[in-house]
Amino acid sequence: MKFEAPVAVTDIAAFIGAELVGNSQLMATGLNEIHKVTTGDISFVDFEKYYNASLHSAATIIIINKKVDCPEGKALLVLDDPFSAYVKLVNRFRPFEAATKVISDSAVIGAGTVIQPNVFIGNHVRIGSNCLIHPNVTIYDHCIIGDNVIIHAGTVLGADAFYFKKRANREVMYDKMVSCGRVIIEDDVELGAGCTIDKGVSGDTIIGRGTKLDNMIHVGHGTVIGRNCLIAAQVGIAGKVTLEDNVILWGQVGINKDLTIGKGAIILGQSGVPGDVEGGKIYLGSPIEEAGVKKKEFNWVRRIPEIWEKVKNL
Questions:
Q1: Domain limits at 258?
Q2: Which of the residues 134, 142, 152, 221 is marked catalytic?
Q3: Which of 46, 57, 123, 223 is 20 to 30 A from 293 via CA?
Q4: Is 221 a catalytic residue?
């Protein structure tokens, strides 16, 4: 998320009650997770094993729970609970804005776009030209939709990320990470009925130009799907996944978080993807292997009773 105007790091420190270490002249221009940060962004870290990655990332200002050496040119904001401080900043710079109409006055809708009955369009949404939005679609605040997009009935764009911090020894164990990212749907995309596309925690969930989604597909927070991908029904994609261009996912594929599927990869139905996948190949199984290898494995599994009978009779 980018701020409407730069904010002095001294003001940020005072607002969250942090000790400022390092460059006190900096101006913050946005708020982001570590994998999305750019120069000027604020990020946070509260686990020591991630300190090095955070301190040497593109983030200019890091909220941290321990005083450490500050890299040159950066600023540290030191306090006990960086997670809560981060949420406090989200609530300040992108506060919840209640809807007052089914289609917000702040929404911008392009020429030739058809909005069917019972569609909800939130605040600051932008929809391009010649789109078709079918009944009962819900488009949360700040979503951006390109030209020539079709969205079928019941699909939801921009729901919060499924992101919580576990707190020990509490009756309510999980603190919510308030989302301030967006969903961006590029030109010529089609989204089937009953899909759910979550917004990023602080960055953008993106579906690239020409990509087509079937019905009942979930796309997790911060996932980036490339151009001309084809995704069949009941696929589940976790957060912060990257699908490069021309990927095909057949029905009921499940994809773990924080991984990349290479350009032109094809994942056959009901497969489980636990890690990065090389492009240009066909995969099958859970966990996946190249389809040719996996099919040979299945053949051997089918022969186990036959082989066992032969062994018993030796």
A1: 110-289
A2: 221
A3: 223
A4: yes
